[in-house]
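Cross-check.
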Amino acid sequence: MRDAKGRPPVSSQEVPDVCRRLRSKGAGVVYGNAVGWDAGYVSTAVFWCLTTADSMGPDDGFVHPHVCVASRACFCRDSLADR
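Predicted model, tokenized:
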């Protein structure tokens, strides 16, 4: 079952943290705000990593809210401002 925007249902317990180094720009996505897991459903969004300034992360994998999660080796839970 999908919601009105065609997204699969996700309960609040299933929503993973997204790496704080992930950034995005696109229609409906505000640059500078934390990127949420559901941002991957914005078809015009472009994602990049602050560490590499590229669409590839430091582990040579593509960056996207659905893959930049805690299970990834380069994942950062804290914001860069906290360092």
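The chain has no helices and two strands. The radius of gyration is 13 Å. Passed to J.P. for a second look.
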